[in-house]
Each structure stands twice: as structure tokens, then as C-alpha cells.
Amino acid sequence: MTDIQDYVKEQPLEVRTFFALVETTAALVGASEKYWSANGTNGARIRILVEIAKAGGSILPSELAARIGVTKANISVMLIPLEELGYVRSSSHPEDGRKRTVALSPDGERLLSDLLPGNRATIVSRMKGLEEAEMIQFLALLTKLQRYEE
Hey, what domains does the chain have and what are their CATH numbers? Predict the structure, then answer.
């Protein structure tokens, strides 16, 4: 039987780096969530609205689910409060009436227009610990890590 202490002390560089990345990411996401919460919403809802906007304002729920990494059932549940709040609307697909599309409403567009600048300023402020060249290098390293497959 392996001693648990082998996994909690004196970790290899790869494991220490991984956990440093996780902890830093959690702190940055926490700062972003604090901003969203202070403005009466949350990052998950904003992420959905942003993905719809990135798709041109309208998208199939299945495609939206794939973009944010949730199941089709979960995206359906996540869209309910956004529709109730008037930030999105769903309608029949223009070419296939069996499908539904979800679109940003004018209120959803206004919410993004009002809140995204402040959130982006929060993120920029938190990233000031790195110089521009360091951020470019860090982004390149993250991209390399994302592309690596065993």
C-alpha cells in the first residue's frame, strides 16, 4: 500500500506547477465571480450570453452546450433563468422546425454591454502582476500545453 504522504509532500515539478496553475486560476475566477455577484449575476450565465454573442447572436442549444462543455440537458436547465430574466429567447429553427435556437434578446445585449467592460477591467487589474512580455510568453506556454496530447 502506498503511503499517502508520498502524494502530499515533496511533489514533482509537474505536480507543483499544475497545482499552482489551479490555485491561481481559482483566485482569478474568484475575482471575476465577485464582480458578477456584485452586479446581480454570475459567470456561468455571462459565459452563456457571451458564447451566444460570439456565435452572432443566435445558436443551437446543442452547439452552445458543446462550446461551454456541458450536456444538452444541462444547457436546457441553464437557459431557463436566462429566458425568465429576458436575456435570451428561444424560437423554432428557421430551416428545421424540429430544432430550437436560442438568441440574445435586446436586454441580454444590454447586460453584456453594461457589465463586460467592468469585468474586463477587473481582469486586467488582476493580471498587472505580469509584464506584457511575460503574458505573451505565458499565453504561448498555455497554448502549447493545451495542444499536448499523450
Answer: 39-119 (1.10.10.10)
